[in-house]
Amino acid sequence: MNTLRRIGLGIGAIAVTVGLATGVYVAAQNTDGPRGPSAERRGGPGGFRGPGGPMGPLGAVIAHLDLTDAQKDQLKGIMDSHRDELTGLGDRAMKARQTLQTAVVADAVDEGLIRTRAADLATIESDLAVAHARIHADVFRILTPEQQAQAREAQAQMQQRMSQRGGGRSQRPPQ
Q1: Is residue 20 one of the residues assigned to a domain?
Q2: Does the predicted TM-score (pTM) go above 0.70?
Q3: I want to staple 162 with a disulfide (CB 3.0 to 4.6 A). Which of 41, 137, 147, 168 is the partner?
Q4: Per-residue pLDDT tens digits for 22-66
Q5: How many domains is the chain built from?
Q6: What residue spans of the chain are helical by DSSP H?
Q7: Biggest CA-to-CA distance, the chain
Q8: 171 is a domain residue
Q9: 3-state DSSP call for residue 171?
C-alpha cells in the first residue's frame, strides 16, 4: 500500500507541475489585453481563471507571476518544443490505460496480462514524468527568483491541499 501511495503522490506532483506549465503557457497566450466582462464568465465555475477553467487551479497564481513579453515568448517556445512529445506520450498513455482496463474487467482474471499492461502503463507514465520534469526545469529557468518562489509556494499549497483530501482523489462513495 505504501508503494501505491508513493505512486499516487508522485502522479499528484506531476499533475501540479503540468498544471503550472500549462497555466503559464495559457497565460502567455493572452497577449491581446482585456477582453471584456463576458470573457471572465467562460471556462469554469470561477470564470476563465477559476477552478475548472483552462488554467485550472493555478490560473490565478500564474496571472500574478507578471511575466514579461520576453518570458511569454520563451514560454510559448518551450511548450511548442514539447508539444509533439507530450501529444505522443498522452496518446500512448490513453491507449495503455484502455488496454489495462480491458484486461481488468475481462470475464476471466489473467493476472499475468494485467501485470504486463500495468507495467506498460507505468513505463509510459515514467516517460511522461521525465518529460514534465524537463518542461518544469525549462520553465523555471526563464522565471526570476521571485517568480520561482511564488510558483513554488503555489505548488506547496496545492500539494498540501491534495494530501489533506486524500492524495487528490475525489471522495466519492464506492459504486
Answers
A1: yes
A2: no
A3: 168
A4: 554 555 554 444 444 434 333 444 443 333 333 334 445 566 688
A5: 1
A6: 2-29, 59-63, 69-104, 111-142, 145-164
A7: 58
A8: no
A9: coil
Nearest Cα neighbor of 133 from 10, 6, 4, 2 is 10
Q: Measured between alpha carbons, how far is residue 116 from residues 96, 112, 129, 158, 171 in Å? A: 10, 6, 20, 33, 29
> Is 113 within 8 Å of 121 (Cβ atoms)?
no
- The string of pLDDT tens digits covering residues 66-113 is 889 998 899 889 889 999 999 999 999 999 999 999 999 999 999 999
Find where cell 467562460 sits.
42
Residue 135's identity, in one-letter code, is I
> Is 173 contained in some domain?
no
Whether residue 169 lies inside any domain: the answer is: no
Q: Looking up cell 507578471, which residue turns up? A: 66
Cβ atoms < 10 Å from Cβ of 138: 17
- What is the Cα–Cα distance from 148 to 17, expressed in whole angstroms? 13
